[in-house]
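Worked example 3 (structure in, sequence out).
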């Protein structure tokens, strides 16, 4: 009787493993657009909303590395600007450099102007 119960449990366990594992699908993380991510991070820096840009700059530099794979020229320009931000303590230099980076990314200046409304 004990052998029969052990055998039944073993058969069920193997069945569950085979069924459960055979239908596994790989989950791919959503692709991030480095330009869009850079804009999201740089806007508060350019607006002076971050007291210290250092914590955000690690992510900025990682995104620049990703961008260099598809647009090496822009990536190299932004890398220089990113290093400039990381090497200064002057908030005005940080803001101005972040604004320049946003312009290079096509985000324009972040002067706080209201977005234009589509015409009817």
């Amino acid at each position: 009787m004990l052998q029969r119960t052990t055998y039944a449990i073993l058969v069920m366990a193997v069945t569950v493993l085979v069924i459960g594992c055979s239908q596994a699908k790989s989950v791919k993380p959503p692709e991030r657009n480095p330009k869009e991510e850079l804009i999201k991070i740089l806007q508060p820096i350019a607006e002076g909303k971050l007291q210290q840009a250092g914590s955000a700059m690690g992510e900025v530099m990682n995104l620049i590395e990703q961008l260099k794979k598809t647009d090496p020229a822009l990536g190299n320009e932004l890398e220089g600007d990113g290093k400039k931000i990381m090497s200064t303590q002057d908030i005005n230099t940080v803001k101005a450099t972040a604004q320049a980076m946003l312009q290079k990314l096509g985000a324009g200046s972040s002067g706080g102007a209201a977005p234009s409304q589509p015409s009817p």
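Notes: The two ends are 81 Å apart (CA to CA). Helices lie at 2-22, 34-46, 54-70, 72-86, 91-104.
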